[in-house]
Amino acid sequence: MTLVSWLPLAAVCTLGAISPGPSLALVISNTVGGGTSRGVATAVGHGVGVGLYALITAMGLGLLISNTPWLFSTIQYAGAAFLLFTAYKLLRSAVATTDQQQEQHQPRFSGFGGGFLVAFLNPKLAIFFLALFSQFVTAELTLADQLLMMLTAGGIDAIWFALVALGIGRTGLLALLKRNSVWVDRISGLIFISLASAVILQPALSS
Fold first, then answer.
1. Residue 31: CB partners within 8 Å, gap ≥ 6?
2. Which of 170, 146, 168 is nearest to 62 (CA)?
3. Where is it mostly found (predicted)?
4. Are 59 and 130 in contact (CB under 8 A)?
5. What's the angle, vertex CA 150, arms to CA 144 and CA 153, rounded to 5?
6. Are 32 and 178 within 8 A, CB to CB?
7. Torsion angle, alpha carbons of 53, 75, 193, 115, to 10
8. How far is it, in rounded angstroms, from Cα 159 to Cα 129?
């Protein structure tokens, strides 16, 4: 892959990473609840999940996921269940009244694992990468090209969310968010519930 063909790929991956969604809410929530290290770990986990989807798509398996309705739906509903569970943990932690209680009620799926699951349980990434990689994936695509696609998508994603975590953690914004951590948890939880509800209700709304 030449530099000329790689730059558009990197640009679209960047736009996809910075678009708001549950990943951003999770990174912010984990940074506020567990500090910069947990926020960065979440970013790295999410980047690994995105990179894995990119590699699967580049190898042609993404087409299998997108063309197999039951597999797509299974992953999609698993993702919705994970978002609802995370929302439950966040809203539960929001009612804690002491620092010790807040620590006990931190989201179970936090840090690296939480970031990875938010990405991996999002089958729409397969559709995104199929559309994005359609101009790059050919019969002549080498393993090195496939790995480059994976590293580009996953690396840009991890770097962006790590910058978000560091930007919060290394400025006065973290202290402000910590003072209002209950509202951070509540808002994040409501975002997860709304996104999960959209997935669950989509078949009924589209019929």
1. 38, 39, 42, 164, 165, 168, 169, 174, 177
2. 146
3. membrane
4. no
5. 135
6. yes
7. -30
8. 19
The pLDDT tens digits along the chain (207 residues) read: 778 778 888 888 888 888 777 888 889 888 888 888 999 999 999 999 999 988 888 887 777 777 888 877 887 788 788 778 878 877 776 555 334 444 444 544 568 998 998 888 887 787 778 777 766 666 667 888 889 989 999 999 999 999 999 988 777 776 777 777 777 778 878 877 887 887 788 766 665
Both tokens of 6, joined, read: 């790689």
- Tell me the two tokens of residue 158: 């991890």
For residue 133 the two structure tokens come to 């990689």
Token couple for 77: 């509903």
- Other Cβ atoms less than 10 A from the Cβ of 40: the count is 24
d(CA 62, CA 124): 10
Q: What is the pLDDT of residue 41?
A: 94
Angle in degrees, CA 79, 110, 53, rounded to 5: 45
Tokens 């990434």, located at residue:
125
Round the CA-based radius of gyration of the chain to a whole number and report it.
18
Query: Cβ distance 136 to 12 under 8 Å?
Result: no
